[in-house]
Structures are given as C-alpha cells and as structure tokens.
C-alpha cells in the first residue's frame, strides 16, 4: 500500500527509479575512467586543467543523480517503470538506423545511401503513400545538395566509386 510520502510525490512516477539508477551508474562509470581519458598538466592553473571541467560535470551528474535517487519515495521497480523502459528502448531502433547509415556512407557513397535511407525511414514511420515517398526522395536530394555544395561539407566518396572508369569516378567522388 502506498505511503503518504508516495501519494504526495509530484510528477510522473513511471521510469523515475530506473532513470536515476542508470544515471548514477553511468556517472560512476565515467568518473572511474577520467584518469585514463584526461591528463593533469604540470604548471597549469587548477581550473585550466584538462581534467577539471569533465570532473566537475561528472561530479555534478553523480551528485544530482544521487539526490534524485535519495529523494524518491519508493525503492522498487514497478511494472509501470518497465513499461516506460520499453518505450525508451523503442528509440534505440532509430539509433541503429543511424549507425547503419553512418557505416554505409563511406562504402556506398553519400547520395546513394541517403536516397535509400530517407525513403526507408519514411516507410518505417508509416508514410507509405506515393506522395510521401516522392517527397522523401526530394528531401534526400536536397539534403545532399545542401551539404555537399552550399555548405561545402567534405564527405568522402564511397569506396564503391573506385571501381568506376576514370572521369566518371572523379565526378562521383567529388559530387556524389
């Protein structure tokens, strides 16, 4: 039976305990790795040390996560918490899509991969009509043109372009 303190808790309950535990564990893990990832430089002011501000940030994460955990009025994970964790897990699908995209661009090229992934993601999100597929292809082309020509972002050509004949290979590497 919920206590009076649990009844007075303001805000949504679901996922709070799991979030706070995860936050504290990640902060502890990162803080334990700080000496191997940063340096202490001799003859440098304390606040100018490369290790100082990451340590302040991670210490703040640990302190705030610990306070969040301490101030929660319950200590058990409920089915509502697990339902919320499953909702968070759905987001990981899009992280995987993005990672596959990032790994495919150096192999197949920016334009072909973008032309494949944008409509595929549109389809996955439920936009399956001809109009939306056409718009997603147009968006893919505009994205490539914007990044490659207008913004001048240097995205390497795909490894597959190396198999094309001379002049065509140069064109594909430079513009696609």
From TrEMBL:
Q: Does the keyword Coiled coil apply?
A: no
Name recorded for this polypeptide:
Tripartite tricarboxylate transporter TctB family protein
**Keywords from the named record:** Membrane, Transmembrane, Transmembrane helix
Domain DUF1468 stretches? 18-156
A Pfam family that this protein carries is TctB
Q: Mind telling me which InterPro entries this protein's record contains? A: DUF1468
Which parts of the chain span the membrane according to its record?
Answer: 52-71, 91-111, 131-151
Tell me yes or no: is Transmembrane helix among this UniProt entry's keywords.
Answer: yes
State the species of origin: Parasedimentitalea maritima
């Amino acid at each position: 039976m919920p206590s009076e303190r649990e009844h007075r808790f303001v805000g949504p309950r679901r996922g709070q305990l799991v979030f706070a535990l995860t936050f504290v564990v990640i902060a502890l893990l990162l803080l334990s790795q700080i000496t191997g990832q940063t340096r202490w430089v001799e003859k440098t002011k304390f606040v100018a040390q490369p290790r100082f501000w990451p340590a302040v940030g991670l210490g703040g994460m640990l302190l705030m996560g610990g306070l969040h955990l301490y101030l929660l009025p319950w200590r058990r994970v409920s089915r509502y918490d697990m339902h919320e964790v499953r909702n968070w897990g759905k987001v990981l699908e899009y992280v995987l899509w993005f990672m596959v995209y990032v790994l495919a661009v150096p192999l197949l090229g920016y334009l072909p991969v973008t032309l494949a992934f944008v409509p595929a993601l549109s389809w996955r999100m439920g936009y399956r009509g001809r109009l939306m597929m056409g718009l997603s292809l147009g968006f893919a082309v505009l994205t490539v043109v914007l990044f490659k020509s207008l913004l001048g972002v240097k995205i390497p050509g795909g490894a597959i372009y190396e198999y094309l004949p001379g002049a065509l290979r140069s064109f594909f590497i430079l513009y696609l």
